[in-house]
Amino acid sequence: MAGPSGLERRAVPMDLRAAGRRLEGYAATFGTEARIADFVEVILPGAFRGALSPTRDVLALVDHDPGKVLARTRSGTLRLAEDPRGLSFSLELPDTQAGRDVLALAERGDLGGMSFGFTVPKEGERWQGKRRELRAVILHEISVVSAWPAYEGTVVQARAATPHLDHARRYLETIHVTP
User: Fold this and answer.
1) % of the chain with per-residue pLDDT over 90
2) Boundaries of each Prohead serine protease domain copy (predicted)?
3) Cβ atoms 165, 26 nearer than 8 A
């Protein structure tokens, strides 16, 4: 559904296993049909590639609420990548009320799925009747959602963070060395 300023949001269900302060999984999957209002939408491989620029700051939120920030790419607490399955993510949960709540719900298996907020650039979509193919999107945020998602097939797992390894990885990323 489109929100203010043309921002669209899509949600996807997830499998969830909780075991720490990190969430990992997929915020979107490719080739999965979602019924949105009176049309069907499919995300094509490569749709997020341009949106994952290192200069772009993408947020991880709870239920699309900008008052409940869990992580962001600018700080390195949110990592996003596109692989053959879809848009994968890894986020370090903060020790805030929102972070503790998400972790508790994840451990119980009570979360509904993942979602993402985006806009579509010119030439980023193709319509065939009532079928929309997303070929390129500008990603603004991903969200952990507590209710009903639009897309099937996302996976989220809570993982225990390894502080020393994570610190070293962030340092290596800042100097552009792949561990």
Assistant:
1) 51
2) 20-160
3) no
Distance, C-alpha 87 to centroid of its chain: 7
Tokens 């993942």 appear where? 114
The 10s digit of each residue's pLDDT in 2-14 is: 445 677 766 555 5
Q: Does domain 4-174 have CATH number 3.20.16?
A: yes
In angstroms, what CA-CA distances link 170 with 11, 59, 74, 159?
Answer: 29, 17, 11, 17
Q: What is the pLDDT of residues 109-146, one digit of tens each?
A: 888 788 899 999 999 999 999 999 999 999 999 999 87
pLDDT of residue 106: 84
Measuring CA to CA, which residue among 51, 82, 87, 76 is closest to residue 173? 76
Domain assignments of the chain as residue spans, ordered by start: 4-174
> Would you say 140 and 72 are in contact if contact means Cβ atoms under 8 Å apart?
no
Alpha-helical regions (H) of the chain: 97-108, 163-174
Cα four-point dihedral sign 25, 11, 68, 73: positive
How far is residue 137's CA from residue 129's CA, in Å, rounded to a whole number? 20
How many CB atoms are located within 10 Å of the residue 120 CB? 17
Number of H helices, E strands in the chain: 2, 14
Residue at 124: amino acid letter: G
The answer to whether the CB of 101 falls within 8 A of the CB of 107 is: no
Predicted model pTM = 0.75
